[in-house]
Specification:
- This protein is an alpha/beta fold and about 300 residues long.
- It is built from nine helices and eight strands.
- It has an eight-stranded mixed beta sheet with strand order 1-2-4-3-5-6-7-8, sandwiched between helices.
- Helix 8 links the parallel strand 7 (about 235-240) and strand 8 (about 265-270).
- The mean pLDDT is about 95.
Length: about 300
């Protein structure tokens, strides 16, 4: 693995990781989830390397080493942070294409899956396939309520203030389906060692600021306003998820939405939770993802 940085549109330094095989037949760019770091995909990347795929993944702005400090985690930008996060993905895509003239695929997990959907609305010609992991469909009135709460909290505390309220409103219900709970993050994964590693990682399990939620909710609302019947992609999409993932409460709507835009493959894994790439059945998931990538080639 090698590391490098690039500059976002606003001058923010974005830290990036690259895992490269000896012979490259394709590249997978990963957009990771909220409150985590790209290094959590190290095991997945190494398996992909064995099959000839290079892997690039930046720590999103406000995450991991792209955050100037642990206190600043979740601070995407002074305004329009989620839009800039998507722009960062496009800048990295351009860097990859300058380095390799091979098929390039995009995988977005959780928050990264929503960023990936916004990405392909703007830059569909830049990738050869899309994988959505741990994603969801429309969330309706609750999304607009969340944005109103974020605006109210911003007026009271400011954009950079941490928001336990919004964190609880957004994720507080997820663990209830897995009682009795061993940790506050049992909903992530059946693999207890991975859950414990997530909690112990200083870049993960962090309470994010008000501004993050305001920008994130705005991005989700933008997705919900899109008329997907007027969008068509020349590439295929793979949707992977655990059927016990609480984030995917409306995944059926997502599947129908993506099918309107082009060829779509779906793989749901029984009893698996949110972090499908780190789950106890991850070897099965890796095999399916690699098989799908090979078919696209």
């Amino acid at each position: 693995m090698r590391e490098f940085t690039f500059q976002g549109k606003d001058g923010r330094t974005i830290h990036t990781y690259c895992w490269e095989p000896k012979e490259i037949r394709g590249v997978l760019q990963i957009a990771h989830g909220m409150a985590e770091t790209a290094t959590r995909y190290n095991g997945f990347a190494k398996v992909l390397n064995e099959h000839g795929y290079a892997v690039y993944a930046n720590d999103h702005r406000g995450h991991g080493k792209s955050s100037p400090s642990l206190d600043a985690l979740g601070n995407l930008a002074d305004a329009n942070g989620f839009d800039l996060l998507v722009d960062d993905m496009h800048i990295l895509n351009t860097i990859i294409q300058q380095e390799y003239a091979v098929p390039l695929f995009l995988l977005g997990h959780s928050m990264g899956s929503f960023a990936a959907q916004l990405y392909v609305l703007q830059f569909p010609e830049t990738i050869d396939g899309l994988i959505l992991s741990g994603s969801n469909g429309k969330q309706g009135p609750m999304l607009h309520l969340g944005k109103l709460v974020a605006k109210a909290e911003k007026a009271l505390k400011g954009r950079k203030a941490k928001s336990p309220l919004l964190t609880n409103l957004t994720f507080g219900m997820y663990n209830k389906a897995f009682t009795p709970n061993r940790t506050g993050f049992d909903w992530l994964n059946r693999d207890e060692s991975e859950v414990d590693a997530y909690i112990a990682n200083p870049y993960c399990a962090t309470t994010f600021p008000v501004g993050f939620y305001e920008d994130f909710f705005q991005g989700l609302i933008q997705l919900e306003k899109t008329d997907f019947t007027k969008v068509h992609y020349d590439f295929s999409t793979l949707i992977i998820a655990g059927d016990k993932d609480p984030v995917g409460s409306n995944i059926k709507e997502l599947i129908e939405r993506i099918k309107k835009m082009g060829k779509t493959d779906v793989k749901l894994y029984p009893d698996a939770r949110h972090e499908i790439l780190l789950e106890t059945n991850r070897d099965e998931v890796y095999k399916d993802v690699i098989g799908w990538l090979n078919l696209q080639l």
